[in-house]
Design the sequence.
């Protein structure tokens, strides 16, 4: 019935979709096995892509030749660049998406790849012969052969859903859990554990009073994720902001004795940075309110996602508390929030290619590795897909270092440090974040993607053209000087100290208040040069960042060298980390628990940031 495939991808979520697309576009014959093609890359939780550090991951996936950025651009309903008030290393794109269109567009993209086939079924086990992975067996009793298998099972491995005292099996609400794979992998020598995640209540937007909330509009000039020719939004839908209160918290507390989280029915560890509302109330008891983001699920639906109100409390408690929130007094619920517990496999059992150490040609990607988030899953998926293709075609592996990409940071963290809780990407995890900006992902990674046969030739040509223009304009600016009288009106308008003498233009541009886009309006010769080079807004932005932040990049490189030099500095076993308030609370918790013996060991503990290590070095008198 089936031919032998090069690669079988198990699971059609964000990891599976990117893995299947990458391997097939590179030339492998791929089969994607999923329970339902209509649920391809479904947004099980919030209807959004990107965010702090996550936006960088999506742009990196796109730069390599992946599809997440393209699909997001085609289906988003709002775009915002977060952290604009900070330096460009912190800028992070985020898009609100149309949930239905997102999944439909992913299916459309996958179906357009000739080498990619589909099979709707549940994979229940792996075919193992002579200690080799040879394919998969399914719930329908079908055996399908392949040279490599990529497991991207998400929350479906022995998934169990909790709502108050009720519990039932499921990978997400309304969909069956997957059984058999965990048990077989454990028999083969893999170690697994349980994790927990959750999702908020969904409400009917027609029942909400938005006048009592704070409107959050998209950017005036919305950007996009993909470096390809996708179109920016011409109009957007607003999100809204509201808050819980002590009255809301009091109602929620009445259900704590029935909470599966608090009475021990859930053994899995939940996400530290996206906790349930009941967990927030317990952990942050000093706070009398918490933010809630009211997010539309699409263009043509009234369904609203209440971001920040994730809960596994009984549905009647959720409903009573919800109606005490400003704007929700008459709220109607489509479905309650719920928690889900599922199996994951410790990622320290993987190599940098995401191939397992125990079995060749078997790869894990996504939440099966203990991560949380669409973006983290997709990033692992594209790396697993690329490497599975390269391995079976006897080519060198594709490995991204921590200085190459956030994707490199993600994978290095997972396989080196492991994780005891759902791993989420943050800018603080990347010691080279000034180098790994979202705006320069194309110059960093498209040449790599093109070299391995994933990024298209046109994509590479466009990157070369773009950075040729950037470099020409940068060199031109570095040669130019400016008279005080030329830009005095502009400097006054941005409250920047006037010039006293003629200076190099690049010195003016290093001032934090100065914007190149505004500055060129006062310098006709520079404006003409930029127009002559057909510089678009993204090129102008890239020029400004290149000129303005060069010294910061050099300092960051020196800092990385210092960290390496201090690798073997000893740490006392009785060190009182909780007394060092300059270290993040998570960092103090982890250090106190793990009691590392050296700075190097401390730096590899999951959740310890480069900033935490710097504080330790200062405290020890080493810098």
Sequence:
């Amino acid at each position: 019935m089936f031919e032998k495939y090069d690669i079988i991808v198990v699971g059609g979520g964000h990891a599976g979709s990117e893995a299947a697309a990458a391997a097939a576009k590179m030339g492998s014959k791929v089969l994607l096995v999923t329970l339902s093609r209509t649920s391809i890359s479904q947004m099980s939780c919030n209807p959004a892509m990107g965010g702090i550090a996550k936006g960088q991951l999506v742009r990196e996936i796109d730069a390599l030749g992946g599809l997440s950025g393209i699909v997001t651009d085609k289906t988003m309903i709002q775009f915002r660049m977060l952290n604009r008030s900070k330096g460009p290393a912190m800028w992070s794109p985020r898009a609100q998406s149309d949930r239905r269109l997102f999944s439909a567009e992913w299916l459309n993209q996958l179906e357009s790849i000739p080498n990619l086939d589909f099979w709707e079924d549940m994979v229940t086990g792996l075919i193992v012969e002579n200690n080799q992975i040879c394919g998969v067996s399914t719930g329908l009793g079908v055996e399908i052969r392949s040279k490599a298998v990529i497991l991207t099972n998400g929350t479906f491995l022995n998934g169990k859903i909790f709502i108050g005292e009720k519990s039932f099996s499921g990978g997400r609400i309304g969909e069956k859990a997957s059984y058999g794979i965990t048990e077989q992998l454990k028999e083969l020598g893999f170690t697994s554990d349980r994790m927990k995640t959750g999702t908020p209540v969904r409400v009917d937007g027609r029942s909400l009073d938005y006048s009592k909330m704070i409107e959050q509009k998209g950017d005036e000039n919305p950007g996009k994720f993909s470096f390809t020719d996708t179109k920016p939004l011409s109009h957007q839908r607003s999100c809204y902001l509201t808050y819980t209160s002590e009255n809301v918290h009091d109602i929620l507390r009445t259900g704590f004795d029935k909470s599966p989280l608090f009475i021990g029915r859930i053994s899995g560890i939940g996400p530290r940075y996206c906790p349930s509302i009941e967990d927030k109330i317990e952990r942050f008891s000093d706070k009398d309110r918490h933010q809630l983001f009211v997010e539309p699920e699409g263009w043509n639906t009234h369904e609203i996602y209440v971001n920040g109100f994730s809960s596994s409390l009984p549905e009647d408690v959720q409903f009573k508390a919800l109606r005490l929130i400003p704007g929700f007094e008459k709220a109607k619920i489509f479905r309650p929030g719920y928690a889900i517990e599922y199996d994951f496999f410790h990622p320290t059992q993987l190599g940098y290619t995401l191939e397992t150490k125990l079995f060749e040609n078997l790869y894990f990607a996504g939440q099966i590795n203990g991560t949380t988030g669409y973006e983290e899953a997709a990033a692992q998926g594209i790396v697993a897909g690329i490497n599975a293709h390269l391995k079976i075609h006897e080519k060198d592996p594709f490995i991204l270092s921590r200085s190459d990409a956030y994707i490199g940071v993600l994978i290095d963290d997972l396989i080196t440090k492991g994780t005891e809780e759902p791993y989420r990407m943050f800018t603080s995890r990347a010691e080279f974040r000034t180098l790994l900006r979202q705006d320069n992902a194309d110059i960093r990674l498209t040449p790599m993607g093109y070299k391995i046969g994933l990024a298209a030739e046109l994509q590479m040509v466009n990157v070369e053209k773009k950075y040729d223009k950037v470099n020409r304009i940068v060199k031109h600016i570095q040669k130019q000087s400016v008279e005080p009288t030329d830009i005095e009106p502009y400097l006054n308008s941005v409250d920047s100290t006037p010039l006293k003498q003629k200076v190099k233009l690049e010195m003016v541009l290093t001032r934090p208040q100065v914007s190149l886009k505004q500055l060129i309006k006062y310098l006709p010769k520079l404006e003409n040069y930029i127009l002559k080079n057909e510089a678009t807004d993204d090129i102008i932005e890239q020029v400004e960042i290149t000129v303005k932040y060069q010294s910061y990049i050099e300092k960051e490189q020196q800092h990385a060298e210092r960290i390496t030099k201090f690798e073997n500095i000893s740490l006392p076993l009785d060190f009182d980390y909780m007394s060092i308030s300059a270290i993040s609370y998570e960092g103090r918790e982890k250090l106190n628990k793990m009691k590392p013996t050296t700075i190097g060991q401390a730096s590899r503990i999951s959740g310890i940031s480069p900033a935490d290590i710097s504080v330790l070095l200062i405290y020890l008198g080493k810098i």
Q: What stands out?
A: The CA atoms of residues 56 and 457 lie 23 Å apart. The longest helix spans residues 457-479. The mean pLDDT is 91. The two ends are 66 Å apart (CA to CA).
